[in-house]
């Protein structure tokens, strides 16, 4: 744009110079012609000035002739003729100084002074002639006297005529001298100067074209560099935004920025984004770069972490501000996952240590109960005490099973994928949460159509943790449903949870009274040679807006006190490591998690293929 503007300006300048040169050339020619014409007019005027003096002298001679004739033969007719000649002479005198020819003549000889003196005298003579009586005997003498008074006027007119003739002769001599010189020389010189000016303009134009060519090549190279830079910026997986520091108007943004904020500059999200950047940057010095760390709310509840820098750049030949930001939300999520994993690892170690330590007193209690029963058997009436001892022994066994489950769940997984029984792993995981389900009055059942020897590849402990996580989520969903019922609706289940502990020692799959409305069913089967585990509940299901994000890190419907949102994300990673899939859908009034895994037979077939 600037190159075309410069070319247009230079073109207009060249046209202006050419037009000015032509105009000056024509003006000079016109001035030359005008001066020539004026000189010719002046020459004609000078020549006419001699004719004016000659006419005045001629009229004076005629007046004197009339005086002489009238003085010899006086008559009325002669007097009238004399007065006419005197009037004509009187009219000729002002022409000697008050006309164009007279003014030219005045530059040669003084015509005003003598003529004006005789104008007054001539007026008196005219008056005297008008009063003259031709019949009077003294008329001739008076006429001769009046004629004598006008003699000095004749001498003055003769002097003026002679000087005018001499001046005209000098003018004629000079004109002849000038006529011998070539009159075309000024015009030739004028044409030569114009040609030189045109040559200078042509040479300058050629030089300008060469320089414009060089500038065009440089600007083309610069445009190519800018285009490559724009392509690089467009491909950078970071948010790049250019704003005007004076108006905060967004001048440029790349696709990453469009994905982060909005693809339209008219969207109100852009002013909000610029305001957030300004607030996080704290109005830094635009002459140098500064680090920037901020949080940006793309929508209600959608807050991301951004990190980058802001500084001044020359963009589109104007000083503007460049903002470069990278979405660090995933990095932050990974850091939180690591922290949570460290906490969970610590808790697992503590739980394993506690379970190990509890085994010792439980073993002592078991031995004490066995000894007490042996001592009580010979004694009569010891049945009530024996029942109590039996109950104590059952509770010790129950506690031992719990500690064994905790120790197994906290065991460090291996890095090798080994075959294990799918049904056995599901039963162990269900047994780990069975007591919690009984306490929550939730019926947990396991249905299987697959053989007991069905094996899958993986790390059994990690797979058990996946099943436990899904079951715990189902229990929490029922608790959340109860919380909503307490806030507005009546709870679905009014069963008393304080039943006798001994009645809860039945195996997995037992249903307590009133638990039919709160049920979780685990089914194991085979579909097209792959093992399928379904975990179905009737706790209301997953909110539709969370179905697609449920397996993302920190995506959860629970409060921060109840969950971290990492369990299902880790579960998906475990199932992927086993070459399987895990999905969720809402059906049957609740959520259904479907886990699909290759069996050992399918794996062997794939290896053979």
TrEMBL record:
Stretches assigned to the Histidine kinase domain: 353-601
CDD domains reported in the protein's UniProt record: HisKA (cd00082)
Chain positions covered by the region annotation Disordered: 481-515
TM ranges: 12-33, 183-203
Keyword terms of this UniProt record: ATP-binding, Kinase, Membrane, Nucleotide-binding, Phosphoprotein, Transferase, Transmembrane, Transmembrane helix, Two-component regulatory system
Family annotation (InterPro entries): HATPase_C_sf, HATPase_dom, His_kinase_dom, HisK_dim/P_dom, HisK_dim/P_sf, Sig_transdc_His_kin-like_C
Reactions listed under catalytic activity: ATP + protein L-histidine = ADP + protein N-phospho-L-histidine
A Pfam family assignment: HATPase_c
UniProt keyword annotation of Endoplasmic reticulum present: no
A molecular-function term among this protein's GO annotations: kinase activity
Biased composition (Basic and acidic residues): 489-515
Domain of life: Bacteria
Enzyme Commission identifier(s): 2.7.13.3
Stored Gene3D superfamilies: 1.10.287.130, Histidine kinase-like ATPase, C-terminal domain (3.30.565.10)
Protein's UniProt name: histidine kinase
UniProt lineage: Bacteria, Pseudomonadati, Pseudomonadota, Alphaproteobacteria, Hyphomicrobiales
């Amino acid at each position: 744009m600037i190159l075309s503007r410069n070319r247009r300006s230079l073109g207009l300048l060249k046209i202006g110079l050419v037009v000015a040169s032509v105009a000056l050339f024509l003006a000079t020619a016109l001035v030359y012609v005008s001066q020539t014409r004026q000189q010719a007019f002046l020459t004609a005027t000078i020549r006419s000035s001699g004719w004016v003096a000659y006419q005045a002298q001629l009229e004076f001679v005629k007046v004197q002739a009339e005086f002489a004739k009238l003085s010899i033969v006086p008559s009325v007719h002669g007097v009238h003729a004399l007065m006419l000649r005197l009037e004509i002479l009187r009219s000729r005198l002002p022409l000697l100084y008050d006309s164009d020819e007279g003014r030219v003549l005045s530059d040669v000889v003084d015509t005003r002074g003598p003529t004006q003196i005789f104008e007054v005298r001539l007026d008196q003579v005219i008056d005297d002639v008008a009063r003259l009586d031709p019949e009077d005997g003294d008329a001739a003498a008076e006429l001769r006297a009046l004629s004598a008074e006008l003699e000095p006027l004749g001498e003055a007119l003769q002097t003026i005529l002679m000087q005018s003739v001499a001046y005209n002769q000098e003018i004629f001599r000079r004109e002849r001298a000038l006529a011998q010189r070539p009159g075309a020389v000024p015009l030739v010189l004028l044409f030569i100067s114009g040609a030189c000016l045109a040559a200078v303009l042509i040479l300058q134009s050629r030089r300008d074209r060469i320089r414009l060519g060089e500038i065009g090549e440089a600007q083309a190279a610069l445009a190519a560099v800018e285009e490559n830079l724009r392509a690089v910026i467009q491909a950078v997986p970071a948010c790049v935004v250019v704003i005007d520091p004076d108006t905060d108007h967004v001048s440029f943004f790349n696709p990453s920025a469009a994905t982060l904020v909005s693809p339209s500059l008219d969207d109100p999200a852009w002013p909000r984004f610029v305001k957030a950047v300004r607030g996080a940057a704290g109005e830094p010095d635009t002459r140098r770069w500064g680090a920037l760390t901020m949080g940006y709310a793309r929508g209600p509840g959608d807050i991301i972490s951004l990190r980058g820098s802001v500084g001044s750049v020359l963009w589109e030949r104007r000083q503007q501000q460049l903002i470069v930001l990278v979405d660090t939300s995933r990095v932050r999520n990974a850091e939180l996952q690591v922290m949570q994993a460290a906490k969970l690892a610590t808790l697992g170690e503590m739980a394993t240590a506690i379970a190990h330590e509890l085994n010792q007193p439980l073993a002592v209690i078991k031995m004490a109960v066995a000894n007490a029963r042996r001592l009580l058997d010979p004694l009569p009436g010891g049945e009530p005490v024996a029942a109590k001892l039996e109950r104590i022994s059952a509770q010790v066994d129950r506690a031992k099973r719990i500690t064994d489950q905790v120790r197994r769940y906290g065991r460090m997984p291996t890095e090798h994928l080994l075959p294990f029984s799918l049904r056995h792993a599901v039963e162990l995981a269900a047994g780990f949460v069975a007591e919690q389900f009984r306490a929550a009055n939730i019926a947990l059942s396991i249905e299987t159509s697959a053989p007991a020897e069905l094996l899958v590849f993986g790390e059994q402990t990690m797979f058990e943790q996946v099943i436990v996580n899904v079951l715990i989520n189902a229990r929490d969903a029922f608790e959340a449903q109860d919380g909503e019922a307490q806030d507005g609706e009546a709870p679905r289940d009014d069963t008393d949870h304080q039943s006798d502990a001994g009645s809860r020692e039945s195996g997995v799959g037992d249903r307590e009274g009133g638990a039919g409305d709160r049920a979780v069913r685990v089914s194991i089967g085979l579909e097209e040679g792959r093992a399928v585990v379904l975990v179905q509940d009737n706790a209301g299901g997953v909110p539709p807006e969370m179905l697609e994000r449920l397996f993302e890190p920190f995506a959860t419907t629970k409060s921060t006190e109840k969950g971290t949102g990492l369990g299902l994300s880790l579960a998906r990673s475990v199932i992927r490591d086993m070459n399987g899939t895990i999905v969720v859908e809402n059906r049957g009034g609740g959520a259904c998690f479907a886990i699909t895994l290759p069996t050992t037979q399918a794996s062997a077939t794939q290896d053979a293929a």
